[in-house]
Structure formats: structure tokens, C-alpha cells
Design a protein that fits this description.
TIM Barrel; 100 residues; 3 strands; three-stranded parallel beta sheet; alpha/beta; 13% strand; 37% helix
Amino acid sequence: MSHVALTGLSRAGLSREVCGAADSIEAITGRRPETFAYPNGRCDATPKAAVRSCPGIMLALNTRWVSGGESPTGPFEVPRMPVRPGTSPTDLLHMMESNT
């Protein structure tokens, strides 16, 4: 695993990067990760399929920031929300509700 951009990798390379990372995390922590973040935020249909096929992964984040009224395009390409030290739980809830 090298945190390389996943676009352009072979199926074997994708499996090594995605499931290999999940396997390593599980070996160290005793828990299989349920989320994944695309290295450099780069993803297309092929990396999304690799993440989707990796056992245990249920959600993947890209590096695109969500803006008001924008909906996620599915559980394997979820945009990020800007949560900063001053963001209150109420602020976060409002951001989430305005993007559903």
C-alpha cells in the first residue's frame, strides 16, 4: 500500500491498495474499517467498484467539498463537509440536513 491515486491501476493493484489497507488495519486494530477515503480524492468507476467489492467497506469519501443543496452521489463517493473547531453540533446538523 502506498497511498497512490487509484485511477489507472490494474484490478490486482486496486485490490492490493484497497483491501490490503483494510486487511492491515484489521490486523493491527482487530476491527475491519467500514469507511475509505480515496487517495488524493481521485476516483472513477473502476476504483469505486474496487472499494465496493472490498468486504466491510460501506462508505467512501472523495475530497470534493459539499456545498449547500448538493446531494451525495452514492455511498462510494460521499463529499466532505467542512467541520472546524468552531462548528457546533447544531451547525453540523444544519449542514447535513441542507445536503440531503
